[in-house]
Amino acid sequence: MIGKSENITILNTLTATLIDSVEGYRDAAQNTESGRFQELFRQMANERSTCVEDLRAEVRRLGGDAEDDQSTMGSFHQRWLDLKAAITGRDDKAIINEVERGEDYLKAKFEKALDDGELDGDSRSVVERAFQSVREGHDKVSALKHGMEAAS
After folding, report:
1. Residue 67: what pLDDT?
2. CA-based max dimension of the chain
3. Which structural domain, as residue segments, surrounds residue 132?
4. Helix, strand, coil shares of the chain as percentages rounded to 5?
5. Residue 47: HSE in the Cβ half-sphere, 13 Å Cα cutoff
6. Which residues contact 142 (CB under 8 A, 6 or more apart)?
7. Which of 110, 91, 5, 90 is nearest to 48 (CA)?
8. Is the pLDDT of residue 131 over 90?
9. CA torsion angle for 66, 70, 74, 76 (degrees, to 10)?
10. Which of 5, 39, 71, 86 has its CA 20 to 30 A from that of 93?
């Protein structure tokens, strides 16, 4: 177990990564031509926004300042997604591939935070609930990607 300040650091790191995810989904919704994908990406951005707020609330409960900005790596990923969309002419398959790559990264961050066993009970519970959403989102996008590959 670690102290409150370490819990706050872990929670804020995960929050920044989730903010990246929210922005990534919003970006993907704007860049895809498919109305079906636009709606899915907007819905997933909203789900992730809820997770962000849950993590922020836990940071505040611990007496910390909640993260309100995306990570540097996320900012780079956003620009890559923008660039990729521009280059590929808003190719849905390319967008789905980039979204899945982001989902893989996000899932790994949460798994590491949970596997380290350093979060205390309440903070761990909040992270586990957020991870359920992350895992479900990851699986949805992965299934979508593999479905597109099978149809090709």
Report:
1. 84
2. 52
3. 4-151
4. 85, 0, 15
5. 18
6. 100, 103
7. 110
8. yes
9. -140
10. 71
pLDDT digits (tens, 9 = 90+) for 56-103: 999 999 999 998 876 666 665 666 566 566 546 778 888 888 888 889
Residue 123 DSSP SS3: helix
With contact defined as beta carbons under 8 Å apart, do 112 and 10 qualify? no
CATH of the domain at 43: 1.20.1260.10
pLDDT above 80 (res 139): yes
Work out the angle between the directed axes of helices 121-151 and 4-31 (0-180°, nearest 10).
Answer: 20
The count of domains in the chain is 1
* CA gap 93, 72 in Å, rounded: 25
**How many Å is the Cα radius of gyration of the chain?**
16
What is the residue-averaged pLDDT of the chain? Answer: 86
